[in-house]
Amino acid sequence: MELNSRLGSVDSLDPNDEDMPYSDDETEDELESPLPRTDDEQNRINQETEDNQVPSKKDGTWKVKANDRHFLELPEFKKKHHFCFKKSKYAGNAIKTYKYNALTFLPLNLLEQFKRAANAYFLALLILQVIPQISTLPWYTTLVPLILVLGITAVKDLVDDIARHKMDNEINNRKCDVIQNEKFTESKWMNIKVGDVVRLKKNDFIPADLLLLSSTEPNSLCYVETAELDGETNLKFKMALKVTDEHLQQESQLAKFDALLECEEPNNRLDKFTGTMMWRNQSFPVDMNNILLRGCKIRNTDICHGLVIYAGADTKIMRNGGKTRFKRTNIDYLMNYMVYTIFGLLILISAGLAIGNAFWQEQIGTNAWYLNYGNDYTPSYQGFLTFWGYIIILNTMVPISLYVSVEVIRLGQSHFINWDLQMYYAEKDTPAKARTTTLNEQLGQIEYIFSDKTGTLTQNIMAFKKCNINGKTYGGHCREDGATVDRIHPVDFSWNRYSEGNFKFYDHCLHHSIKYEKEPEIWEFFKLLALCHTVMVEHNEEELVYQAASPDEGALVSAARNFGFVFLARTQDTITINEMGSVNTYEVLAMLDFNSDRKRMSVILRYPDGKIRLYCKGADTVIYERLHPDAKNIKDTQEALDVFANETLRTLCLCYKDIGEEEYEIWDRKHKAASISMADREAALDKVYEEIEKNLFLIGATAIEDKLQDGVPETIAKLARAEIKIWVLTGDKKETAENIGYSCQLLDDDTEIHYGEKVKELLNIRQENRRNMEVVTTGKQKRYDPFFSGNKKNALIITGSWLNDILHEKKKKKKKKLRLRRPKSKEEEFSQQEAKYKEDLIKEQLQSDFVDMACECSAVVCCRVTPKQKAMVVNLVKKYKKAVTLAIGDGANDVNMIKTADIGVGISGQEGMQAVMSSDYAFAQFRFLERLLLVHGRWSYIRMCKFLRYFFYKNFAFTLVHFWYSFFSGFSAQTAYENWFITLYNVLYSSLPVLLVGLLDQDVNDKLSLRFPRLYLPGQKGLLFNYTNFFISLFHGIFTSLIIFFIPYGAFLQTMGQDGEAPSDYQSFAVTTASALIITVNLQISLDTSYWTFINAFSVFGSIAVYFGIMFDIHSAGIHVLFPSAFTFTGVAPNALRQPYLWLTIILTTGICLMPVIALKFLYKIIKPSEGDKVLKNRKKYEKEEALTRRPVSLRRGGTARRSAYAFSHGKGYADLIVSGQSIRRKPHAPRPAVSRVGESSLATQTS
């Protein structure tokens, strides 16, 4: 009954959780689309046309001719490249990620830099300054900073591009053997072409997408490691076609190979390939099992040969890269808008002052006989020229040095990340790496993290932790007598020559029982683990090397091996194990492999004494249904399974059944008939398997730990306290993903989980409510209630199929047909457009609702999703929440997601480096993400915000003095300062202190930053730099400029020096205001500095000293003699600054500027302290306290979904391969004697 219901559900309208959605590359003409209804006559015409048409070959437009490079240059394969030039559509195998070469660097880099509005603006200013009629400042005041900016940026771009060149050259210059001139010749990867036949050796990377032709393994099997594609280190096997295996083993045969392959165009589907090979007047189907993908690594195969199908940019791994887009931070966008605002203010102020100059010229200037301009300009024209003069003078409100300083700060912060020893992974000698220098402050604003699972959260390493045998649980810290202790040394397996040094087990009671054979059930338990599997074994220098279809299965066989039940060898119909020193060979009568429906695996064996026994392992939900009524220990095992599930361990039930000879023969006939059935063979086999897998007797249960990376639960918990939400996006099965969710504490006891069905139901209710509201209301925006009521934590677990179904992304295959359609009327076109508009609107509403629902949850797990879907989910959150996102992964299937997110992080240190190459930041362990965000990200954000606020302030204070001075200079565009002071203000006099604050400042140290994650919240909310802060800096600058100008102006108004001279001239006034300004702005940054070092103090007082030193030099008589036109303030500084009352004026000006700031800071800390202020207040107490205790692992009682995640998630194993004999080497050998040699007295002496 269960089987029928299961089989009958195939045609259900609901998505299948086990299915992966269609390819990302399927075009609309391959997918179902609504067509207009046609009448019967039209249908008849369509059918006749379709029947008479010549079969189209559109499906096989990609053609590859073996060993024929000239084939690629045929006209039919040419396509337009530039203008009328054509080139072959087949890409070369060289990859290119660099942007410049020696010839194009200078023009292209300058072109890119002048695309930035600020650089173009300053270039325009430079052009204005060389026009004598409007120039109010020398040209060098703009040229020197502009060259500095362009030069620093160009050097940084050059260094980055050289690194890309080196990486490209390293990959392109790898070597492999290619058939040329009828023999194998060593060639570089970049010289490989489509159609070449290549030879690869063990541990070689695959240079292009290849059709496997032959190998040295039986039946031309080839084992590959796909870590660079998906982060998984377990091996996968590929197999050559039988015809190429038989006829293409020798070099001469390969050189004469001339097959034609027709297949699909290049696409990004990693699990799909369809093609046909035509050779010797026959056609042979080719599928994904015959394809070796670029980026994979050859393992356990001495030599293999392949035909290049896709090269370079056409390979699937490169197609999965997604579009590379230039990423910019929120602060970048905000800074640009603020610069545009300042440009607007600049134009308004200049226009106002120009109008004032026109009126002044009209009323006063034309009547002043002493003002002889040497021209006859009208007041209006003079005002027009003055407008441009003020544009030049006031341009320092947006100084070009701002962009240089930002680049320097970002570069320094990137190096701090690279140098952080606490993010260095010593085990694999992998430091953290900031691969970009433009996104550091964005790390302090992350709201959503999208993480891959395999290789990112987990190590993809399974460990045998516990078991239950005959109702008794083993795996704790137990002595030989069964007494539990708190601490105990691991079991010593040195008596077993096959034991693995890295296997740790702490239950000495189980070990003691096995060695002394106290309980037969324990021996039977481990015998089952050693016999019931699809693992393959290799003997490598007397070492056993297991190759498993999944890490789980490998962990179980390894556990049996360490406990003395060693899997030694297998043939097509036998399996040999060493049972505590005794080597036995069992005949394999049948192997019933795993699949996603069965959730179990069985093997039927004939013992040496002739007894037939079935061993079975699988999920408890399917095993318990098939147990014999007299089976024992069912309740005890159930309780153990509950405990294992609460500890987030992956479990399996083990059982057996003795089969009579007659019963087996009857079943075997049915099995053979089902195995050759042409109609629905899998269903027929499932039905036969059901007949034999019943009335089983329970032996026990295993518990495997899917090992998380160190510190993952603690990291996730800490990031959650910083209100960062973590979503897991994985291609794994639902049960596996859910199990990991509990392990890493994304899910816990109090979490209510909602699956695809519930999500769709809630979204449909919201849609229905929206339609009802549209009928009732008159267009007012309705604010909907939350999807989930109450205070309970909620989580979504949704598969890729459900995601497509819910978001109307689902695509259905259709058969291509020629359809003749009558012309559409205007009404039909309008109707179709309206229907499409409504469909798009509904789709957008659904997407928005889904994001709202997901964001109400504490955790979201999307499983069985494609790379494109991962990117789609990230993009939805960015689109509808305007949130800052971070994606982290380790495989090529994560590249699209990494490129789509605002910040991309790659996990390095594994074999796969595709994610790292596409990432913005890279490190070896997920736990380093905590430090990257909560320490480096938060510090970078605070530093950049403080830098920008102060930079805008000091330049407003500096520039607006010209504005106040204009009212006393006839709006004549006369500068209030000396020209050299204007040139050097942002370069030398005020740049270093703020630069060091941007590099070194920190409100609290790294330990307190990690201890109090809520310190991260201001960055998420953008509280430290926004338009409010900008206008505060503006008004602060206006206030400072007022004081800087009017207090010296008042002091100079009616003043006499102590020697009877009147120093109230323009030049003395300029020196006084400049001196007050330099002291004020440098002391102001001192008030804003939270973290004082010697360097900070030296920079503040050093900047003031440098100012006075340079000023006295450029005001000296000696330099005036050398350059009389450039240095006109001869002797001004020594003359003015020897007057005590001018020093008093400077001190008074500085004090009035700073006292309100000091008072406000004091009041804020007392009345409205920030989170940082509160932590700083108790800093010493916190530093003395011990670190916070680790959060305990959450438990969930009665959870069954996670219990058998292994059985639910296990893919099909090597059973078909084994029973077909294709994995068994051809060379003859006597298996039994060889096994005996391996096993003789192999398990050292056992005490009796």
UniProtKB/TrEMBL annotation:
Domain P-type ATPase N-terminal: 82-143
Keywords: ATP-binding, Cell membrane, Cell projection, Endoplasmic reticulum, Golgi apparatus, Magnesium, Membrane, Metal-binding, Nucleotide-binding, Translocase, Transmembrane, Transmembrane helix
Domain P-type ATPase A: 172-235
Listed Acidic residues bias regions: 14-32
Broadest EC class assigned to this enzyme: translocase
InterPro entries: ATPase_P-typ_cyto_dom_N (IPR023299), ATPase_P-typ_P_site (IPR018303), ATPase_P-typ_TM_dom_sf (IPR023298), ATPase_P-typ_transduc_dom_A_sf (IPR008250), ATPase_P-type_domA (IPR059000), HAD-like_sf (IPR036412), HAD_sf (IPR023214), P-type_ATPase_IV (IPR006539)
Official protein name in the record: Phospholipid-transporting ATPase
Species whose genome carries this gene: Erpetoichthys calabaricus (Rope fish)
